[in-house]
Structure formats: structure tokens, C-alpha cells
Amino acid sequence: MISYFDCAATTKPTEQVIKDIETGMRDYWYNPSSTSEESRKVKLQIEHARRQVADFINCKPEEIIFTSGATESNNLVMRSNWDIVMCSAIDHPSIYRTMAWSSFNLGNYYVPVSSGGQINLDKLEAVLKYIEINYVHDDPRLMCVSYVNNEIGSTENIYEISKLIHHYEGRLFVDATQAIEYRDIDVQSMGIDMLSASFHKFGGVRGCGFLYVKEGIKLEPLLTGGHQENNLRAGTEPSYLITAMGNRLEEMQKTKALRLKVIGDISWSIKKKLGLIDGNKIIEGIKQNGEYCSPHIISLTIPNIPAQELITLMDLDGVIVSAGSACSSGENVPSRVLKAIGLTDDEARSTIRISFDEFTTEKDVENLINSLTKNVQILKELHMDDEK
Fold it and tell me: What is the CATH number of domain 15-254?
């Protein structure tokens, strides 16, 4: 039996998603850009999914662009005509690394975060004031924000960030990949200008996602060729994936209250069993990182316990956790995110990420706690012997 606690990396497709994809591949495989009756049916399915996505985040259907996922969407936004680009020190690699792209000639700014993982609003305003003074007033400027951090689960105050950015006449782009299933998203009331998400993070599959672009904002396509997706994303659309994604979001909207309760209960159970809630910690020195965190991600630092060794031992027990972002796995360096919130190199290398979804069971939680406590003790004894 596998107990899976790496849902921030990817989630298991739901049975309904698999069924929708199979139906689409079998019966609706026609090219939606062709003119046959069957092709028109596929095109109608895509437009129905566009409305489903739009309803989920409260925007117009024509403001939704289908892409291969958030990494493509993020690049599509960031590689457009912005002279000044800002992001936080803990943003996802598809944002943070894209900041170095050569077209950002006038200015790139990385805004510090608090020890809890939130953008420092005073320092963000200081950056905005500096830009206001030192650049031409109409230089296009963009602020990129990950709504929920993928390593520690910290949640940004999008409302306050939006007020600041718009006060200084910038545009706000939100990567909602980790938030789409666990946080309320209303692009109108929150003042979001652009937003990205990946299907495989909420019970779907890889290779499909969407980008919201507020009406009136002009972007430059990454992929040129056909006229698809309002001339912003050339290539024949994977209609069966798009249809499944639309249906999944509609289902999530209907089951929202129950899903969030289940996730909250799982999070509480894990933290309760570890003693993080009442202070009776069952593992000496263990602490949770981040503040105002999404309940589906728990970042834990266990002093003097090498995370990679712990993950390997837990994997042998059939319990899958991670050391942080899957996009950065294999890099033999301390996590940039953990360093940005104040952890030392040793603490960062002793940090694991537990992430889950509404399909995680109490039995999975028991397996997690048993494997974690057992293997921490094994590693403690092993490294004590090494020191002797």
C-alpha cells in the first residue's frame, strides 16, 4: 500500500477525469479547427470548458487561454512587453528563473518575505516608490506572485498586494497553481489581472492548464503558428484534456465546502499527532515552517536529520513525502525558499514537505506518523554512532 503525501508535486487523476479523457479520446478526437460537423462538436466542448473555468474564477470566457500548464502560462506572461518585473524571493522557479530573461532590460526586483513566507508589503511599496521615481511613468510594470507557496504553503495577501500594485499603475499576475483547489479565487474582487494554473495539481493530468488574461491586456505569444486561443497559443488544442479540466473545476465548485473540511481535518490530524498543536511534540525539535499556510502543505524541519535520507527510508515503508519543490529536486543545494524565510543551510537540508488532498485517508495519516517517527529515530541513532 502506498501512502502518498506529495500532492504539491502532482495529484492522482480522479476516476471522473480519467473517464472524461477516455470518452474524449474515443468519441471526440476531431480537430476543433476543422469545419466538419464532428469538429464543430469538439469546438463547442472546448468553449463549454472555457465557460466552466471562467465561472470558477469569476471572469469572462474570452479571458481564458488554454495552455500546457502553469509553467508555459507563466512564461507567456513574463516574456511579454514588460520593462519592469517584480516577484517575491520565494516564487516558483518558473517565475523566479524567468526573471533573468534578457528582455527585462530596465529593471528586475526581488521583494523580500517575512519569516512566515509573506511578501513584506512595506518593502514592496518601497520598491514601487523607487520605480516611480527612477523610471518613465508609462514603462510597463508587472508584479508576479505565487498565491500559495509550493514548498511551505504560505499564503499571500492578494487583496493588499493588488491595491499597492494598482496604486502605482502596475499589473498583478498570480500563479494560483497551489491555491486553485484550496483558496477562494475571484479575479474581479481580488484585483487580479492575470492568473495561471495547472490541471495536474487538482485531480487532473499533466499537459493542460489555463491562463486568465484580463480584457485589454496585450501579451506576446510564445508559440506562433495557428490562430488558436485568441492568437496567443498556437497548436491544436487537446480537447479531451480541456473538457476534463472544465468538468473537474465545476465538480470542485459544487463540493467545495466538503473538500475544504476534509483537507482541514487531515491537516489538523497530522499536526495533532505530531504534537504541533498542543506542544507535546513526539519528535524533539520538530517545527512547522510558514504562517497563514494552506492546509494541504505542511513543511517540517527536524534538526540534525538529513531530509534526503529520511525520505528514502520512508519511501521503503511505502510513504511518499518530499524535501520541497519537485521542480528543484536533485539539486544538492539548500532550498532558496527556506533560506529566504531565514532557515540556515543545515535547517534547510533537514526539512521535508508533506502535502495531501481530499482523497488522503486516516490510515494514510497513521502510516505517515509511524514511518516518520520510526525513521527519525533510526537516523538519530545512526548519526550518533557516526559521531562516536
Answer: 3.40.640.10
